[in-house]
Design the sequence.
């Protein structure tokens, strides 16, 4: 055997045995989750878990998180960590409301995107040009955005009828669409509370009832991002900057240019999420209305392993949890205790199969505790209901940490000319 053959054999990449989160797997996860939730709904009697209102509310709450997560994906695929998503969302809410109440909601959407993009541009200048630590820059952007919008509100919204220093006047709503006939039929089917059939009707009904046109645009941005980043030469060059910028530069890629584009687009996506909050979700700008959704969007992106499909799945999970909090919170979250207990039983079985007995014992103890809690109480305390979205964020990140694979050069310093 020749030396070159030996070298090639030894250099062969090792397979880690993990499956990629492809579209068929995502659909399988969604189907399995729907069956499990249907089972929990039937046992607990919490029929609002999969109602049309619940799904519609979850979708509306998931969109801002998904836009923040999509923004984080653009930046980190180019090698720039974007902790400043929260601040860029704040800029999106303010600029969206400021333009929206004066010139209409679609102008507000456009200005919200511009506001977020300006935050992204600032982050790009600090991190790419001046090579400042990405975390420090992101935190600075968050602080600056909060103070900047508070300052602007004092002499803009405070001087107009219906506004104050902490909120804007009411913004004209964006057109909502409902599929006639189909929406009513699905509502009747969901009201029968049949196992799985009614749950599926509730999910589909939530997607065709009172759906904002901006929601449709936001959802279409997810597959559009996948196509741009994974099916075009532009996307290949951008992702190469996040994997190995030195090698990319040696092949003629302008790394600074692609990092700038990625971070500005990242800010624009987060700004769109902020504009959605102000224009669609509430109809007004309110100080502090982002509520940490930029950070939760970042968590959704990490849960999705820096892929659009997984990010959308994580955003849907967080949106669903938020919706549980707002609709019949105590009863719905009480039912979710049973769901978590069943999921932990599955974790026990999997850990035993992998011969990890310590992890299996811990999961079994947690499952037993949740089963006891579910059996002893009829409704969980309101404090736990309020904390449910954030607890979900921590649990999801903890359980998914072992399969994560971030871009290799994500957050690493880079100077122009290193590849020469």
Sequence:
């Amino acid at each position: 055997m020749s030396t070159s053959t030996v070298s090639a054999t030894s250099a062969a990449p090792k397979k880690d045995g993990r499956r990629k989160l492809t579209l068929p797997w995502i659909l399988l996860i969604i189907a399995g989750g729907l069956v499990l939730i249907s089972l929990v709904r039937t046992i607990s009697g919490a029929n609002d878990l999969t109602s049309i209102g619940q799904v519609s509310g979850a979708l509306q709450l998931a969109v801002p998180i998904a836009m923040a997560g999509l923004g984080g994906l653009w930046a980190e695929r180019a090698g720039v960590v974007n902790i400043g998503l929260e601040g860029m969302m704040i800029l999106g809410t303010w600029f969206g409301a400021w333009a929206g109440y004066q010139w209409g909601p679609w102008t507000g959407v456009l200005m919200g995107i511009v506001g977020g993009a300006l935050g992204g541009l600032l982050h790009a200048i600090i991190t790419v040009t001046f090579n400042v630590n990405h975390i420090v820059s992101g935190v600075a952007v968050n602080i600056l955005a909060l103070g900047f919008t508070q300052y602007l509100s004092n002499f803009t919204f405070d001087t107009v009828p219906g506004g104050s220093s902490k909120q804007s006047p009411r913004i004209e709503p964006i057109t909502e669409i409902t599929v006639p006939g189909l929406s009513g039929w699905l509502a009747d089917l969901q009201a029968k509370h049949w196992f799985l059939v009614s749950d599926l009707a509730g999910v589909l009904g939530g997607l065709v009832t009172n759906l904002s046109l901006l929601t449709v645009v936001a959802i279409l941005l997810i597959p559009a991002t996948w196509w741009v980043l994974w099916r075009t030469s532009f996307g290949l060059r951008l992702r190469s900057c996040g994997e190995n910028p030195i090698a990319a530069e040696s092949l003629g890629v302008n790394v600074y240019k692609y990092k700038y584009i990625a971070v500005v687009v990242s800010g624009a996506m987060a700004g769109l999420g902020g504009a959605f909050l102000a224009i669609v979700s509430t109809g007004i700008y309110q100080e502090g209305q982002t509520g940490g959704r930029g950070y939760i969007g970042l968590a959704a992106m990490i849960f999705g392993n820096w892929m659009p499909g997984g990010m959308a799945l994580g955003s849907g999970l967080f949106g669903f949890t938020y919706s549980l909090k707002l609709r019949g919170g105590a009863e719905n979250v009480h039912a979710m205790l049973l769901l978590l207990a069943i999921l932990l039983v599955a974790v026990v079985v999997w850990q035993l199969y992998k011969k990890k007995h310590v992890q299996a014992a811990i999961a079994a103890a947690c499952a037993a505790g949740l089963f006891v809690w579910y059996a002893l109480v009829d409704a969980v305390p309101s404090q736990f209901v309020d904390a449910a979205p954030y607890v979900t964020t921590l649990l999801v990140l903890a359980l998914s940490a072992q399969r994560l694979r971030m871009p290799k050069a994500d957050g690493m310093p880079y100077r122009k000319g290193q590849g020469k």
Q: What stands out?
A: Residues 255-281 form the longest helix (27 residues). Confidence is low (pLDDT under 50) at residues 1-18. Residues 249 and 417 are 8 Å apart (CA to CA). The longest strand covers residues 176-177.
